[in-house]
Amino acid sequence: MPSPTSTHSTLHVAAYARASLDHPDPQEQLARLEELAADLSLPTPTPFIDTQGHAATPAWSHLLAACSRGEVGVILVVAFHRFAGSIKQLTRTLDRLNARGVRLISEGDQFDSATSRGRIAHQLVSCFVSFEEVGRSERVREGQEQARRQGRRPGRRSCSGGEGSLKEGPGLMSASSGRYS
Questions:
Q1: Cα separation, 140 vs 128, whole angstroms
Q2: Among 19, 61, 115, 181, which lies 20 to 30 A Cα-Cα from 91?
């Protein structure tokens, strides 16, 4: 695999593949993405492969860094879930790529950020993320107000002792013995 940080050649098209329990061999993903590139008359993509599963994604980080340096103009993925663990992460990534002029194409999701359909889909998903964030904030404020009306202090219980504290109990350190229960 060519180094994603090499300076002797400029990357234009990148293919991102990630191994997982249900798809342990990323070569199948890469073959699909190379075929997609050929169908779209794009050059053969440079592969970026994460083999450690979802927890470790160094190749994805290298790919985003290459995008930031202007070395990548198109990213091909088999599906959004190969790199984004949530809708919020997906919209943030799309925002970041769009700001850099990088086109994202997801074969399985039939998404292309350079098309009007892709731009509309991105805007709709962004609206839902924003709506959910506002709703979550409103629910937290409502819960805090309800706690105040009931004479309780909003937020987490104190660990310092006193009424309603978490000083002792299952899984917490006992003040008298200094041991976990």
A1: 18
A2: 19
112 phi and psi, to 5 degrees? Answer: -140, 115
Map out the domains of the chain as residue ranges: 13-113
Q: Is the pLDDT of residue 7 over 70?
A: no
Residue-averaged pLDDT of the chain: 80
Class of domain 13-113: alpha beta
Q: How many CB atoms lie within 10 A of CB 102?
A: 24
Termini Cα distance of the chain? 51
Which residues does residue 16 pair with via DSSP β-bridges, in sequence order? 48, 77
**How many residues can be counted in the chain?**
181
Backbone angles phi, psi at 42, to 5 degrees: -100, 155
This prediction has a pTM of 0.67
Question: Rounded to an integer, what distance in angstroms lies between the CA atom of residue 95 and that of residue 114?
Answer: 13
AA letter at 8: H
Taken in order 73, 29, 93, 62, the sign of the CA dihedral is negative
Question: What single DSSP character describes residue 160?
Answer: S
pLDDT digits (tens, 9 = 90+) for 97-147: 999 999 999 998 899 999 999 888 878 887 877 777 777 778 888 888 888
